[in-house]
Amino acid sequence: MKENTNILTIITWGVLLAAVSVLLNDMREFDFNQFEKFQNWARTADKSENWFTSKNAIEWSYYIISAALFFWRGYLIYGFSYFLSILKEIENGNYFSDKNICYFKKIGNIFIWYTVNVLVLRFLLALIGESTFNFFNELKAEFTFLIPAGLAFYILAEIFKRGKEVEEDNELTI
Amino acid sequence: MSIKVNLDIVLSERNMKSKELAEIIGITEANLSILKSGKAKAIRFSTLEAICKALDCQPSDILEYIED
């Protein structure tokens, strides 16, 4: 079992590092310097123009939504990092520990929150005209599978909770 | 719990210490203490058999049902 955990830990580290490097690369490619041109927004904004529909407001929204998308991707990677904690617990022989139950719930939460928030953000991005949004196409996208995966982790947490009770019963059987 | 473990009484009747019994039946003192204190959730037939053999008694001497 220890060998398997070691292999899984190495794979998880590989996935995590790859995900972080992809995220960092995407952030590097996203030109954050463009924020600078909005720094004098108050001075350059046309006072007669409606704030909500002004070009500046729309572009600001675009950058804020893009930044939020980066944040959620980082949050998803943070969720993946819990796999390492679970593997560590398993390596120590604590299969049905409270920590593992908690980690499974956290991963489930993160997967579901990520998917819902990214869907909303993509919808908002389409609203301001920076991209297209087709709900059914979004559902087909890979990330929507994270909702069933999140639910599966909730179920795993419940199974592990029951496993913990059975383990306690077994320990108290003399 | 409605099942009372009277192991202490039987042990004192036999002038035997918990440590000795634990050694004879092959369980740890900690587990025997769990059994004596009534914290155990279940007892294996093999453990019960070993205890009865070591103390030369019947299961009913060790276990007693008390109505709640």
From TrEMBL, chain A:
The chain crosses the membrane at residues 7-24, 60-87, 107-129, 141-160. InterPro entries: DUF2975. The keyword Transmembrane applies. The keyword Heme does not apply. Keywords: Membrane, Transmembrane, Transmembrane helix. It comes from the Bacteria. Pfam families: DUF2975. This is DUF2975 domain-containing protein. It comes from Winogradskyella jejuensis.
From TrEMBL, chain B:
SUPFAM superfamilies: lambda repressor-like DNA-binding domains. InterPro entries: Cro/C1-type_HTH, Lambda_DNA-bd_dom_sf. GO terms for molecular function: DNA binding. Pfam families: HTH_26. PROSITE patterns: HTH_CROC1 (PS50943). Residues 13-62 form the HTH cro/C1-type domain. This is Transcriptional regulator.
